[in-house]
Specification:
The chain is mainly alpha-helical and 259 residues long. The protein contains 8 helices and 2 strands, in the order ααααβααβαα. Strands 1-2 form a two-stranded antiparallel ribbon. α1 runs parallel beside α3. The termini are far apart. 36% of the residues are buried.
Length: 259
């Protein structure tokens, strides 16, 4: 009978998804260091690398059957650094810190906006953890923290490389608006498409519509032209998609009641 029992899975395999999480955490930490040294392009790229690692660690854990409560909690803490603290500090060093030149009060507004974004990211992650398994997987409630970080960092990257002739100091008020809006969208109740197929639980919940798969190579090909500007355009469109759908639903509700 003992020969018929499956061999126990090696505990070392649990290192695999956590290694991806650690890589994402390192990328977020590197982004903070790079921004403090004025290297905003590499800081922005590092946050996108963290987003890739964040997308891989969960899928690797599910594919290898190594999901664990430890991994879930570790992933959330790493996300707070990579998609909360890192984007806030990169944006602060690049643009928001320049608000101090317009007066002491505006200088405080700059770092307060950066803190607001970081706090909203923490709240978004905490709410997501408490709602896992009880929400429709087709939608995110509030802008996901990786998407918010992508919007922030694509904005920085699009202008920090110097190709558009504008810098963070000149765009400090636009940066202030992007930071506040990104933070508030994360804690909003607005729904954003998660790019997952159905709302059912289990393996089928990981499926995505064929249209999404067809769009992936098109987006990659377009990104090859001008990665930072294309990423910024995609980030803006996705961030606007939620409020636009919410506004359309609100506009249709009164018409339905009249009928």
């Amino acid at each position: 009978m003992d020969e018929m029992r499956p061999k126990p899975r090696s505990r070392s395999i649990y290192l695999l998804p956590n290694l991806f999480t650690t890589a994402g955490l390192f990328a977020g930490f590197y982004a903070i260091i790079a921004a403090s040294n004025g290297d905003f392009v590499n800081a922005s790229i590092a946050v996108f690398v963290a987003a890739i690692m964040d997308g891989l660690d969960g899928r690797v854990a599910r594919l290898t059957g190594t999901s664990s409560e430890f991994g879930v909690q570790y992933d959330s803490l790493a996300d707070l650094v990579s998609f909360g603290m890192a984007p806030a500090l990169v944006m602060y060093h690049w643009a928001l810190s320049s608000l101090k030149f317009d007066g002491e009060v505006l200088g405080r507004v700059g770092w307060s906006a950066a803190f607001l974004y970081a706090a909203c990211a923490a709240l978004r992650l905490a709410r997501f953890n408490t709602q896992v398994g009880s929400v429709d997987k087709r939608w995110f409630i509030g802008l996901a923290s990786p998407a918010a970080a992508g919007l922030m960092m694509s904005f920085v990257w699009a202008f920090a490389d110097g190709n558009l002739g504008l810098n963070g100091e000149e765009l400090r008020y636009v940066a202030l608006a992007v930071t506040i809006v990104s933070g508030l969208l994360m804690v909003s109740r607005i729904r954003f498409w998660s790019f997952k197929g159905g709302g059912e639980q289990g393996p089928r919940s990981e499926r995505v519509p064929f249209l999404v798969l067809a769009l992936v190579p098109i987006i990659i090909a377009i990104m090859a032209w001008d990665p930072p500007r294309v990423l910024f355009a995609v980030g803006v469109v996705y961030a606007l998609s939620g409020p636009v759908m919410w506004a359309l639903q609100r506009w249709r509700q009164p018409a339905g009641k009249v009928q």
